[in-house]
Model the fold of this input.
Amino acid sequence: MSAYKIEAGTGQHIGDRAEQQDRVALFGAPRAPGYMMAVLADGMGGARGGSIAAEQAIRTAQQIFESFSPLTDDVEAMLHQIAGEIHTVIRLMTLSTQIRPQTTLAMLVLTPGRGAIWGHVGDSRVYRFSGPNLAERTKESREVAPAAGAAQDLIGKAGEPPRLAIGRHADLKAGDAFVVCSDGLWQYCQDGEVGAAVFTHSPRDAAQMLIHKARERVTTGDGDNCSLGVVKLLALPKPKPEFQVDKLDRAV
Done:
């Protein structure tokens, strides 16, 4: 059983763009008590293309997660299914319309067995913190293969579905935290700043603080959409004693 309780929240800012093309959401699973999912999609593809792709990503993730059952399904296989179905639907949109929707994707699932499984495509990130300290984070394809330059994987691009990079961590404990975020946040906030904000504040307050910090650092007047989801594991309150010891009279 979990030795912690989960507290989570999200935050978004449109930046200097004409449209918010990021989407972020938190879900429970009706058929899997104790499981939760955080999903972030950073859409792109011209006017309305990005928002359509991101909305489709969130909708598909929610639909598949709501049908997930740990008795018959595997979390990692589910994450691959979500990414594959998003890609298929977006490619069908591309064939039938004039828009070219594409999206990045970051997904995180926490299990009641103190486990975490995450997957990502593109430059939206998943961070894992131990207290205020960065334990690990996902890497973009250009970090893994520098020769690729600025190119990145995107769901919805022509060709085969992009590879979903998977990460895992077992034995979660109180004090651990996760952040899913778009590049509109992480390009302006250092890893240590993200960890400190999440460690010292509630998820909602940490999200607002980090968005404010990112916006302050935009100097070009062309700041990107900025979105994140924060998941913190908090210590359970100590149970109150259910008995009372009466004061004894002094023996004579």
Summary: DSSP finds six helices and eleven strands in the chain. The chain has one domain: 4-235.
